[in-house]
Amino acid sequence: MSGTSTDAGDAVPHPDTVLPDPVSGADYTEPSDVGTERGLLIETSEGAQELFRRSETAPDELRREAGAVLRLPEGVVVNTDDIDVERSDDETMIINMGPQHPSTHGVLRLMMELDGETVLRTKPIIGYLHTGMEKTAEELTYVQGSTNVTRMDYLSPLHNELVLSMAVEALLGIEMPARADWIRMLLTELNRVSSHLMWMATNGMDHASTSMMIYGFREREMILAFFEKTTGLRMNHNFIRPGGTAADLPDGWEDDVTVICDTVLPRLDEYDELLTGQPVFRQRSEGIGNISAEEALALSLTGPILRSTGVPWDLRRTMPYLRYDEVEFDVIVGTFGDNFDRYSIRLNEIRESIRIIRQVVEKMPAGDYRVQDKKVTPPPRGRIDESMEALIHHFKVFTEGFRVPEGEVYVAIESPRGELGCYLVSDGGPKPYRMHIRGPSFVNLQGMPVMMRGGLLADAVVVCSTIDPVMGEVDR
Amino acid sequence: MTTASDGATTSDAPVVRLAGGSSARRPTHLGQEVLFPTRDQYLDVVSALRDEGFETCADLCAVDYLTHPGRRLPEGVVAERFEVVVNLLSLSQVRRVRVRVQVPADDPTVPTLFDVYPGTEAMEREAYDLVGVVFEGHPDMTRILLPEDWEGHPLRKDYGVGRVPVQFKNAPGPR
């Protein structure tokens, strides 16, 4: 908290110091015990998070549930006649999958109600990887913020850094130099390729194709090696920062990137041969895990899942940020909203990303890789040796951080998993007053019960895979 | 996104008629449309926006303004401790709108948006879990990220940040 705002809060007692107690309904006024142990004992849990047995669930609730925790409003998408509320508990079985199951892509726990091998209801139970990143963000300056957010979606760390940086820059009202935008585009598109390759690998594994597992990781390694050369780290780069990027691209980056494009592109055709045309793979993915466009929109699903239902919504195209309006690419759209559509969308998005990367290599302008604003970005290393003022600015940026004008902004970008949003509130201090990340994985998980309903237990693993949840982002 | 630098909320923005005959101002902040309905208008305003073509609710979160009471709000909006922020998205009009509703500290409840946008199910649970705003009518108002028996709501500003005591020689006492 900045000194000024705390002082202001103390001087003018805010009427809202009365804290609520929904459990007993009683108010209490003890601002003195804020933060103390007693202050924390205000409210407790409102109940268990598990999926309950049929007999303990109201028939009305069962009708609304259709899939599971995700209760679509009646009449919109769910045919209520389909739901057998009379079924007794003896006929069905509730099983628990996870949180340590290898196919749940992290510490995701699924409770499923089964009738034989058919999944009736599913409820994802999350929170096993919750590390309080939104709270941590309030304790870190804007400069330090990207080290925090980069760990959310660990498969696309650069997108996390980008969305935070763009939100901070929107509040600051600063324009990025062209080269910074293009570097950001290059890195995030490479990141999209590596994230999708990782998905191809794990999805292959879930289809029992261990070769695909190895291939996906092999190609991804090339991109991570380039990231290591550029940012110093394979993951969690902290490279895209408010005000630009941490450094310029290394010498010879064009060659490295071209080699990556030239290698990955023909190997995508190999994946096509390995998976796309393979009858076993097609039978296990076509028509499995269907979701309609209406359902996807109602459930706020975004990214490849929404596009697989035929909605051409890609923020890079519809609400262009960075310089996406200056490059050519296609938005890949599916038809049936099934597992196969989601697979082919991701496969072809790698091709489109490579197309973008090649254009970025051609069009990369010369210039600054970060905005030359002494209040926001540190001065160049050389200046520190000769200028006392530069030294002071450098010191200030890394100790106190920079102050961001009061206000709030919502910025969204297209991450490999969908709309990655950042709602940032500033009180004028050097730390965010509130930072909320809209994680696409978190929201997309809501589609899982709908996709799994009526399917087989064996397909549940694959449906879970095609949603592509990254638990670091789900739980934050 | 980085274009608008006019930090102030414009007071001369057009007044848009919304459901129930109530009018709500539609000012912009940093180039983004923001609406400030009261708690009573909240559900009607969001429903009207959905009918207006905002097909999907992109995001919902809650903010605790305990230590920042003097924030800038348009005229006529009474600042309360909590704020529920809803970001709606219209795919057909390629537009976003933000709805900010003030929630008093002594009664931190708002009606659920579940019947309008089922996708807010997990988001409202998250807002309840971390900030402690109760969404009335929500079918499953339980904690989502924290364990069931967790006490308190961490993103409230009066929730202490945990510190682990570490032993150092001649260290000053804990802060």
Give the SSE layout.
The complex is a heterodimer of chains A (476) and B (175).
Chain A: H1 3-11, H2 37-40, H3 59-65, E1 93-97, E2 109-115, E3 118-125, H4 133-139, H5 142-149, H6 157-172, H7 178-206, H8 210-231, E4 240-241, E5 244-245, H9 253-276, H10 279-285, H11 293-298, H12 304-308, H13 315-318, H14 339-363, H15 381-386, H16 388-399, E6 407-415, E7 418-426, E8 434-438, H17 440-444, H18 448-452, H19 457-467, H20 471-475
Antiparallel strand pairs in A: 1-2, 2-3, 4-5, 6-7, 7-8
Helix pairs in contact in A: 5-6, 6-7, 7-8, 7-14, 7-19, 8-9, 9-14
Chain B: E1 15-17, E2 23-25, E3 28-29, E4 32-35, H1 39-51, E5 56-64, E6 82-90, E7 95-103, E8 109-111, H2 120-131, E9 134-136
Parallel strand pairs in B: 4-7, 8-9
Antiparallel strand pairs in B: 1-2, 3-4, 5-6, 6-7
Describe what you observe in this structure.
The complex is a heterodimer of chains A (476) and B (175). Chain A is mainly alpha-helical. Chain A folds into two domains: 3-40, no CATH class; 133-438, Cytochrome-c3 Hydrogenase, chain B (Orthogonal Bundle). Chain A has 20 helices and eight strands. Chain A has a three-stranded antiparallel sheet. The longest helix of chain A is centred in the middle third of the chain and has 29 residues, at 178-206. Chain B has 175 residues and is an alpha/beta fold. Chain B has a domain at 15-136: Beta Polymerase, domain 2 (2-Layer Sandwich). Chain B has helices at 39-51, 120-131; strands at 15-17, 23-25, 28-29, 32-35, 56-64, 82-90, 95-103, 109-111, 134-136. Chain B has a five-stranded mixed sheet. In chain B, strands 1-2 form a two-stranded antiparallel ribbon. The longest helix of chain B is centred in the N-terminal third of the chain and has 13 residues, at 39-51. Residues 1-25 of chain B have low confidence and may be disordered. The chains are: A mainly alpha (476), B alpha/beta (175). At the A-B interface, helix 1, helix 4, helix 6, strand 6 and strand 7 of A face strand 5, strand 6 and helix 2 of B.
